[in-house]
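Weekly structure sync, notes
Attendees: PL (lead), two postdocs, one rotation student
Agenda item 3: pending single-chain targets
PL asked that the sequence for the first pending target be pasted directly into the notes so everyone works from the same version. It is reproduced below exactly as submitted, 271 residues in total.
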Amino acid sequence: MSNTERGVALVTGASSGIGLATAKALKRAGYRVFGTSRKAVAETVDGVTMLICDVTDDASVQKIVDEILSRAGRIDLLVNNAGIGLLGGAEESSPAQAQALFNVNVFGVLRVTNAVLPVMRRQRMGRIINMSSILGLIPSPYNALYASTKHAIEGYSESLDHELRTFGIRVVLVEPGFTRTSFEENLTRPDRLLPIYDTVRAQMEGQMRSGVETGDAPEVVAEAVVKAAADPAPKRRYTAGKLAGQVSLMRRFLPEFLVDKNLRKYNNLPV
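Predicted structure, written out during the meeting:
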């Protein structure tokens, strides 16, 4: 199958980790793939055309959409993967820091989606895959603000899917668990650290580091994205990896008090 038979794909945050693995997997699956990064990288990476894009800037987003249209003439698949993390007590982040997090993880998704939608509506077809997380399904102490961004993406994606089906466009979610990437190393720290949280925050950082080290390979998430992209009757959500599947089932079928108890036990917090 040639690159053009599957269509044209845009993957944000594709310079490393899940984004890079996803871009490569889509290329192998037959897509012509454009990836984005905030900083300049090689013009092509394993057949993926790389473009510079800041998802917090409207002009930057529109520029790369126009560039893809000038080169390929269409966009059939959008994978909103760009995002940043933040670990710490919710009280330890200023409103400005919380806004900066939402500007990337939520409004960045809105910007790219809004720029691509007119293209897909003209085509009367398209698929949008938004990268969520198991933290879009459950509470997560010391990840309150990050989890809030993923909960927002869950609600946005479900609602948007209902709006767009009449145009031949589907919106789906991919929900990874711990993944072996540099995500933990690139976490943003709170901008107003409070000593009262030092001990448990350090404990949570260690737990995240351990989870990442033993987590799924980025290729596991990439496989879920390819499946979500190709499914002729897409599901609303695709979990990626064993842990994500377990969390999804727990959240769906266990009573709330058991979810609460298990979550506190998992995080070594007093029940």
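Discussion points:
- The chain has one domain: 3-266.
- The chain has a mean pLDDT of 93.
Action: rotation student to compare against the earlier draft before next sync.
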